[in-house]
Amino acid sequence: MLIRALAHFLTDPGPTMRAAPPLRLIAGAGLALGRVWLAWPFAAAGWHRVFTWDAQEFLFTEVHPVPLLPAAIAAPLTTGAEILLSLLLILGLAGRVGAAGLAVMAATLFLVIGRTPQGVENGIAVAAEQIPWVLAGIVLFLLGPGILSLDAAWRAVRRRGVIPSPKTAR
Question: Which residues contact 26 (CB under 8 A, 6 or more apart)?
Fold first, then answer.
């Protein structure tokens, strides 16, 4: 029951879906722009890491090490998370998962990695970047991805009865 409620929340397009149609579309467009704005720098960083993989050991040991994680684990974990969470957020597929994950990554950059000696030396903790990303992630987590998302499309398909909902499948 708890898992079903959590899954429903994480794939819910959000409270803007209950607004009047013009407002729902305006809010959806704003949320879609916010999703792309938050996801883009993380996706770009992730793909940059993929194409410059040889430099990742140096990057994760000398420039911005992740405390308690060796570079061999931190590099693929971070790269994969940046790409996957960004993709989820841009598509609005489990959009709240992507928003929360990227907000946590931005907060970790600011509060943990940016406070290491290497992070301080290399200027990793830039408040003007990370704090807006954290706030955007929190807002998107709370409001959901909106009407212009795959979560909203999935909800519409389920409501039309094309795919039975878990409640009616009993």
Answer: none
